[in-house]
Each structure stands twice: as structure tokens, then as C-alpha cells.
Amino acid sequence: MKFAVIALRNLARNRRRTLLSLLIVVAGTIGTLLTTGFVRFSFEGLREAIIHGGIGHLEVVPRSDIRESGSIAERPGLPAMTGWQEVRSEIEAMPHVLAAGAVVQFTGMISKGERSAAVLAVAGEPERERRMRMEVKLRGGAGLPDAPPAEGEDAVLLGAALARHLGAETGDVLTLLGITTDGTLNALDLRVTGLITTGVQDVDTRIVRMHLASAQRLLGTQNITSLVVGLDDTSRTLEVETALERRFRGRQPSLAVVDWKTRAPFYGQVESLYLGIFWFLGSVIFVLVCLATSNTLMMSVMERVREIGTLLAIGTSRAQVAAIILFEALWLGVLGALVGDLLGVLLVAGINALGIEMPPPPGATGGMELHLATAPGDFAATVALMAVILGIAAAVPVGISVRLRIADALRHV
Amino acid sequence: MTDPRAPRRPLEPGSAPRIFEASGLRKTYRLGAILIEALRGVDLVVTRGEFVVVAGPSGCGKTTLLNLLGSLDRPDSGSVLFDGSDLGRLTSTGRTLFLRRKVGFVFQSFNLVPVLTAYENVEYPLWIDGLDRAERRRRTEEALVSVGLAGRMQQRPDRLSGGERQRVALARGLVHDPRVILADEPTANLDSTTGAEIADLLARTNSERGTTFLIATHDPAIIERSPRTVRLLDGRVVSDQCVGLSGPGGVR
């Protein structure tokens, strides 16, 4: 005979009330699982979209491009990274590295007939980008060819909003103006092979993508702006970053390694926002479950005042009485959470199978399919959470029971 | 039927060790704006092995007196000595241990724990006192056999008759071999035949085990078996008669 067994039998005395309490805990558990799954889906989706949208897991840049704060300074007009082929070979030989793609970024002016627009040009290597699982979201036409284009066959992808502004379509030839390394203005004719979206409306109005060779031809340099490093697993980012920093220590010209989170401060802001929402919803669930179960536990204690008085009269200590009531609460929490976990798994699977399309977030151009992400640790965490909540809910009933005066309790009807 | 009136031990107060010695017990309850004086200065001495009935009409203070003697409540004034120790000085832990080891209670409504079987109800006081399983089993079965419930051990209280429940309650009160059993109207919820059986069981237990019994009742079946009857009226002792003795019992 154990207090836990007595507590379990006590719960079986009033099955309807116990069922009601369990339902409250089950609902709280499912709510917690769904909220956690949604937040994780949002974090993971945004994280992978940022990484595979072009910035990669890590970026290797000349240290002169790094601010004191650690972030990358506004892109300089000209690419400054020299000797990058050797650096790339070293990086690509490291474990977990899928590829290291050379990138040139510059600002320029693009024209189609009378219409012009200032643009942010991003030039890369399509074949390596594919190895790094970068996604170029085409809204029309085709992507850039893998092979470096021959002179006079340069191609460009236009942001969809930029294309609308210019009145450009696939197949049109546009002129891109840029400043060369010796400070002169240069022009390059580019054929539009496709229209793209980055998912962010503002960026789509000014982005163009082209092959690295085209950008270097326009700017008259073999330098690059940076090397973007893609990994096989995002969780390896810190490990590879540390290894790269160790490898580049003392190298001249000095290189810096920047992770994707530093490159995308927007992610941190979204993370804070979602965590705020998560904690708010979690608090609501916490309070609701706590109050509702506290009430039923209180009813259970008040109905057993004389019985508790009897237990005290035959030598049960007040701590032992408290243990019985606390065990009742813990049973409710643990059993309810286990059932909630089971139903939650089924519900999450059902929601994911429905393929619900989420509306685009503010500033984005496309929605995402809802896919709630649960982790094994979530289930243990909800059990622990519900046990804690029920433990807190039991505080008042326990307090009342241990303060009972025995003679009064025995007279209680 | 066992006759507890048969001379089996010294009855004269002072000739046997005193187990209870109550002096000047007063207890007042507040019922809304009304103050009810349940006890108005009760003195009582009970010696070891006695079988004492506290009789009197409803509301005369019988239950209050038992609660104070059993340390279930505290007097407004006065004191209770148990084996010479002042119960008013007990700490919370000391009080729990006193209730666990020194006294056993039998209540009018049996007060069994409904989720425990008869066996578990009787075993419970031993379990909370930390006895090992084998010792618990031996004592529990012995107690249940002694009250005639050998075949009903695994029944829960709701499957037992009133008489059987009170037998379980008595076995629970006796199982830890207390110095004294305090019984509050133990036959009030039973029919006359069953009440007589319980009264006989209480008397026999007193006779065979030497356990002190202090029973609050107005059941003639118990009173007629008692060698000593203390009568209360309006919170005061109005008589204290020992059958077969010339003078009052332990009343001073």
C-alpha cells in the first residue's frame, strides 16, 4: 500500500469529476503541443528559408568588411576578397561542408529603354548553389545556366516586382551599369532568362541575379565579395564556424566568418516576437488548467473533510495527508498529459496531412504550407509541465487539508 | 458473553497507575453569536485497564471530553495528563505519534477509509508507523480474526454490514496495541442486536487484552456491561459510579 495507490483509488471514487479534470489537462497538453509545434515550424521554416534563400549557413568575408559589432558593413562598391580559390578549396575539404560558393554583390543601374532602376546585383555560381541546396524561386522563365556564360551571352534573373517596374519579360535584353575597379563606368548587356522572388516584397523590387563570371566581367576584377558556405546540417553551424575561425587565424589578408543569424537580424526579431506569443499562450493555458483543476481538487478535499480528519486522528501526519492530495494532483497531471500527448500526435499528423496553406506573413510574397513540428522532447516536457501545473493547483487544497482541526473535521458533515 | 463486571483487576482509583488524569477541563464553542459551554470544569481519573462509560444526554459534552482526552482538540483551560505527561505540551509531531501509538479511536459512523479494503484499513496504522510487511500482516490478521472478520478481509467498507464495519474499526483501533481505546457512540448506528454484539466485543477485548476503554454512549447494552459509569450533564460530571464499589470511581 502506498500513498500513490490510495491517491489513484481516490480519483476513481468520483469518475465523472476525474474525467472532467483529465479532459482539462488533455486539452491543455494538446494546446501546448500545437503551440510548440507551430512555433517550431515557424522558426525552422524561416531559418531554412533564410539560409537556403542565398545567405548560406556561414559567410567568409574580408575582415575589413566587418563592423566592430560583428555584423557585416554595408557592401562596399567593389569586391575585395583575393586568393579566394585557395580558401574555397580548404573550406570544401572540411567535414559537413556541401560547397562554398563565390559571391559578388554590387549596386548598379539597370535599364530597359527609357526605364531605369537602381539594383542590388547578386552574382554567384549556380552549380555550387544547387549543391548547397539554395533555392531560387522562379516566377517565370528558367534559371541561370551552370556554365560561365561566354562574352556577349550574359544572362540575368530579375526580381518579379523589378521586372514589372521595368516592363521587362523573359527574353528581353537589358543594360546593367556598374563601376569598375579602376573607377570607370562600365555597361553589360544581359538577357532576361527568368523572373524570381525572394519572398520579401521590398527585395523583389531591386534584386537581380547573374553568373559570377558576368559580374566579374562588368566590374573588371577577379575578386569576390565573399564565400557563402552551405552545410549538410544547420545544427553543425557553430562547429564548422569554430573550425574555420581556427583555420583562418593569422592569415593575411585577414578573413572573418559570419553565421547566418548574424547575417539575418530579421530572424532574431521574428524569434522574439514568436517566443512572446508562445509564452503568452502558454501562460493562458497554465492559468486555465491550474484554476480549473484546483477547483476540482478543492471539491474533492472538501467532500472528504471528515475522512481526512479520521486519517489525522489515527496518526497520519499532516505531511502524509498532503502527500495523498499531491499524488492525486500528480496522477491527474501525468495521466492527462500522456493521453494529451497521444491525441496531440494524432492531431498534429492530421493537421499536417491536410496541407493547410498559411497566408503570407507581412512583407512576404508567398504563403507556406502548415507543418507542425514536434520533437520527442516535447512529450516529456508536457508531462513534466502538467505535473508542475497540477502540483501548483494542489497548493490550496493541500493547505486547507493540513490546517484542518481534527475535532472540527470529524464533526464535518 | 463476557462480563466485564467480574472482578479482574483493581478498580479503586489510586491503586492502579493512572492513564488519564484530567483537571478542570473547560471547552467553549462559538456557534455564530452564541457561545456554547461544552465542558465546565471536568475532573476525571482513569486507571490502566479500566472499562469506563461516559454517559449522558446528547449535547452534555461526552464527545468533547473524549476529544480532549484523545488530544484531538485542546481545552480552553485545564489539563490532561497521559501516563503523567501533559498532552497540552505535545508538539505537532509528538501529537501525531501519540495518536499513532498510544490511543485507538472508534467512531459512531465507523469512519473507515472507503478506498481501502477491511485488511488495508486495519493495516494502515501499522503502515504509517513504518512496520515491516511481515509484522503488519501478522498483526492485521490477528486483529481481524479477534473481531471475527477472518473471512471478510478483502472486502471494501461498502460491501460490509454496519456491524462488520464497526468490527473493522475496532480492529483498526486495536491493531497497534494502544494503551487506550476511545470510542464515541460505537453502537449508535447499529441495530440493537448488532449493538449488543459490539458491546460484548468491546467488553471482551478489555477483559482479554487489558486495554483501557473509555466509551461515550447512552446505549444501555454498553452501560450495563460497564463496571464504571461517569455521567455528564451540561458539561459537568454529575455522578461517577463503580459497580460493586461503595464510593465513586475516579472522580475527585
Would you write up a description of this structure?
The complex is a heterodimer of chains A (413) and B (252). In chain A, helix 2 (15-55) runs antiparallel to helix 10 (265-302), helix 2 crosses helix 12 (318-354) and helix 12 (318-354) packs antiparallel against helix 13 (376-393). The longest helix of chain A is centred in the N-terminal third of the chain and has 41 residues, at 15-55. In chain A, strand 2 and strand 3 (115-124) form a beta hairpin. Chain A has 15 helices and 12 strands. Chain A has 413 residues and is an alpha+beta fold. Chain A is 53% helix and 20% strand. Chain A has 2 domains: 2-50 and 267-411, no CATH class; 74-262, no CATH class. The relative contact order of chain A is 0.18. Chain B has 252 residues and is α/β, with parallel strands linked by helices. Chain B has helices at residues 62-69, 92-101, 118-128, 133-146, 162-174, 192-209, 220-223, and strands at residues 18-31, 34-47, 51-55, 77-82, 85-86, 103-106, 180-184, 212-216, 228-233, 236-242. Chain B has a 6-stranded mixed β-sheet with strand order 6-7-8-3-9-10, with helices on both faces. In chain B, strands 2-1-4-5 form a 4-stranded antiparallel β-sheet, covered by helices on one side. In chain B, strand 9 and strand 10 form a beta hairpin. In chain B, helix 3 packs across helix 4 (133-146), helix 3 packs parallel to helix 5 (162-174) and helix 5 (162-174) runs parallel beside helix 6. The A-B interface holds A 1, 6, 9-10, 12-13, 306-307, 310-318, 320, 405-407, 410 and B 64, 67, 70, 72-73, 92-93, 96-97, 99-101, 104-105, 107, 109, 111, 113-116, 120, 123-125, 127-129, 172-173.
